[in-house]
Amino acid sequence: MEAYENLQFQSITEEDVAVLTEIMTRAFDLDTQQFLGQAKGGPTGYDTGEFIRKWALESPTQSYKVLLDKKVIGAVIVWINENNENYLGNLFVDPLLENRGIGLAIWRYIEQKYPNTKKWLTDTPGYSKRNHHFYVNKCGFKIVKIVNPMNREDEMYVLEKEM
User: Is 15 exposed, middle or buried (0-12, 13-18, 19+ CB in 10 A)?
Assistant: First the structure.
């Protein structure tokens, strides 16, 4: 187990899928309710465990559950590439703990864990306004492309951060 600030980081295992899926479902559904006015919504498998299994367990990623006071509160999944242009695939925190600096602490942990990174890439739904604020204003990413602009449900912001 690794620690950063008051958080602990451990590799995700099959035993973590259920609790991480619960947290991820709450986080994505809250965004969908807030910004699209729909009860549910997120990437394929976000609410069944399929997403965590596919991207955290069955893909060539580095994936970490995040603990606070020995309780799982979120996760982060990254792809670390040989060219040092790395990809942040997913970062989520239980919405019950929002606005406490936890997401930023998770991101800072990732940055210090992978110091050879030249550039970080990520993307986020166009409707997820809180994500835009987080990535741009807190983490230092820049929006470099908007995919499907003006399509409220399918719009995607592509972001990058030069290190």
Answer: exposed
Task: Give residue 27's pLDDT.
Answer: 93
H/E stretch holding 30: helix 17-36
The residues pairing with 33 across neighbouring beta strands, listed in sequence order, are: none
Count each helix (H run) and each strand (E run) in the chain, helices first: 4, 8
Do residues 120 and 126 touch, judged by C-beta distance below 8 A? no
CB-facing half-sphere around the CA of 152: CA atoms within 13 A: 6
State the pTM of this model: 0.93
Residue 85's DSSP bridge partners are 119
Give the tens place of pLDDT for each residue, 114-153.
999 999 999 999 988 889 999 999 999 999 999 999 888 8
> Please, are residues 93 and 67 in contact by the beta-carbon 8 Å criterion?
no
